[in-house]
Amino acid sequence: MTENFETMPEEKLICRAQSQDHAAIDALMRRYKGIVRKRARSLFMIGGDQDDLMQEGMIGLFKAIQDYDSSKEAVFSTFAELCISRQLYSAVKSSNRKKN
Predict the structure, then answer these.
(1) What is the DSSP string of the chain?
(2) Half-sphere exposure (CA, 13 Å, Cβ side) for 32?
(3) Considering the chain, what percentage of its residues have pLDDT values greater than 90?
(4) Mean pLDDT throughout 17-24?
(5) pLDDT value of residue 2
(6) CATH number at residue 73
């Protein structure tokens, strides 16, 4: 019996992803890839390209999945966007430091 991760509620997916269920992690990554792409498009990284920014954004999303705590009463999508943005800004800042 295979489960449909595309229609699974987000909270259940996150719980399974935090338990190292790779299929759940992949499903969350697919769900939020558009947000990562949108955030990455608005930035420029010296010495890098959009693919590098996408990769950094996906790292931020992965960190959000691992670090999310539902008991803090924050919505996952808001937390994920914050983690993605911070990872992207950190990568851009780092690339600017290497330039100078």
Answers:
(1) ----TTSS-HHHHHHHHHTT-HHHHHHHHHHHHHHHHHHHHT---TT--HHHHHHHHHHHHHHHHHH--GGG---HHHHHHHHHHHHHHHHHHHHHHHH-
(2) 32
(3) 61
(4) 93
(5) 56
(6) 1.10.1740.10
Please report whether residue 59 resides in a domain: yes
pTM: 0.87
Question: What total of structural domains would you count in the chain?
Answer: 1
5 lies in some domain = no
Range of the domain at 52: 10-99
Indicate whether 18 belongs to any domain.
yes
Residue 50: inside a domain, yes or no?
yes
Q: What is the DSSP string of 49-64?
A: -HHHHHHHHHHHHHHH
Which amino acid, residue 40? A
Nearest to 80 by CA among 20, 32, 47, 26: 32
Cβ(88)–Cβ(53) under 8 Å? yes
